[in-house]
Amino acid sequence: MEQNKIPDWYKSLRQKHTRVMDALDELGKAARSEGPLDEKTSHLIQLAAAAAIRSEGAVHSHARRALKAGATRDEVVHALVLLVSTLGFPTVSAALSWVYDEFEKSA
After folding, report:
1. From residue 100, how far is each of 37, 40, 52, 103, 104 by CA, in Å?
2. How much is the pTM?
3. Hey, what CATH class is 37-107 in?
4. Tens digits of pLDDT across the chain (107 residues)
């Protein structure tokens, strides 16, 4: 993650709980490497899960990482639009607004 995009609260958490945060990073890497899904698809799935639990920070993070892994903006949006019938429009709309924040930052 680029340093200028890391929220201050997250930097503080990493400083105070380095071992826990390092272990969390390794868990994510291990989970992604366990199966046949590529990195882009993995982040799109994690983006959908983040939207489902209404985690704004995780939506931002996985949208950025999906884009970095080669996802197009249309693929990121589609991953969320697919959830409308499952999660409902308000939840998907919120997630889309967070994704569009990321699009604006990278424009």
Report:
1. 25, 18, 17, 5, 6
2. 0.86
3. mainly alpha
4. 455 577 888 899 999 999 999 999 999 899 989 999 999 999 999 999 999 999 999 999 999 999 999 999 999 999 999 999 999 999 999 999 999 999 998 87
| Chain centroid offset of residue 39 CA | 12
- State the amino acid at position 17 in one-letter form: H
Q: Where do the domains of the chain lie? A: 1-35, 37-107
- What is the C-alpha separation between 83 and 89, in angstroms, rounded? 8
Question: What distance in Å separates the CA atoms of residue 19 and residue 71, rounded to the nearest whole number?
Answer: 31
Q: Which helix (H) or strand (E) holds 81?
A: helix 73-81
Using only the alpha carbons of the chain, give its radius of gyration: 14
Q: Alpha helix locations (H) across the chain?
A: 8-16, 18-33, 39-52, 56-68, 73-81, 84-87, 89-105
CB neighbours of 102 closer than 8 A, spacing ≥ 6?
A: 60, 63, 64, 67
